[in-house]
Write a structure and sequence with these properties.
It is a single chain. The chain has 248 residues and is mostly helical. 75% of the residues lie in helices and 6% in strands. The protein has a domain of 90 residues. The protein is built from eleven helices and two strands, in the order ββααααααααααα. β1 and β2 form a beta hairpin. α9 packs antiparallel against α11.
Length: 248
């Protein structure tokens, strides 16, 4: 083992000792640092799991405190921008579930989305755009939500060939069109729903089977997609965002 001492000028111009580690000692220190990082990573994952469990049990305030005060600061100190963005998304999920929609929207737009854009992660950016649209829809800002779905979210899933993402997005577009209630929106909404249902069946998604089961047990009053519109929306739109407190 070889440990050398050198001197470097300090803030006041005086020499200050520095330790230069060489040979086998450098490898030893590197191994120790890697071990510490691995333990720290396990600790972060444990915090995330605890917060997930608290969410599942409906203890949202406790989960929020862990996300904000323990989990997020660690990623910020480490400079792990992706993990920090994911955690911000989980915080936004809790805020949404608590009815604090404006705060959730601000986090999605100002903290989470810019990170994915800087990283060039187009899929995560599209998913986050969908979450933004979801909040806008809940706020009654349907035109804004629809524009995001059509212009920011759907084209990305189409470019990536993410068919399931398209199913979810197009169902959400249909929901927004129907909620808007304009006569000219009826046909586009039906087209999106028919495409989503047909594609879900082709892919063997379980939602399609549930829709078919509903169709088989209820009397029909018109085209299947219109007759069971409520079931189609409930079963497919459910997939538009992660379960409470859990993210992407």
């Amino acid at each position: 083992m070889r440990i050398l001492f050198a001197h470097a000028a300090g803030a006041a111009g005086q020499a200050s000792p520095q330790v230069i580690i060489g040979g086998a000692a450098a490898g030893m220190v590197g191994g120790i640092l890697r071990a510490i990082q691995a333990v720290a990573a396990e600790g972060h994952e444990a915090l995330a799991r605890i917060a997930d469990i608290l969410c599942d049990r409906g203890r949202l305030d406790e989960a929020l405190a862990i996300r904000r005060e323990q989990e997020l600061p660690v990623y910020q100190r480490l400079g792990d921008v992706r993990s920090a963005a994911i955690t911000q998304g989980k915080i936004a999920d809790i805020l949404y579930d608590r009815g604090r929609l404006d705060q959730a929207l601000a986090i999605r737009r100002d903290e989470e989305l810019p990170v994915y854009k800087r990283l060039g992660d187009v899929r995560s950016a599209a998913v986050t755009q969908g979450s933004i649209a979801h909040i806008l829809h809940a706020r009654g800002r349907l035109d804004e939500a629809l524009a995001i779905r059509r212009d920011e979210e759907l084209p990305v899933f189409q470019e990536l060939g993410d068919v399931r993402g398209q199913v979810v997005c197009r169902t959400n577009i249909a929901l927004t069109l129907l909620q808007r209630g304009r006569a000219e929106d009826a046909q586009p909404a039906l087209d999106h729903l028919l495409w989503s249902h047909r594609t879900a069946r082709q892919l063997g998604l379980r939602e399609a089977g549930q829709i078919d089961a509903q169709q088989a047990t209820r009397p029909r009053r018109g085209p299947p997609a219109l007759d069971h519109l409520d079931h189609l929306l409930q079963l497919l739109v459910r997939q538009s965002r992660p379960p409470s407190c859990h993210v992407s």
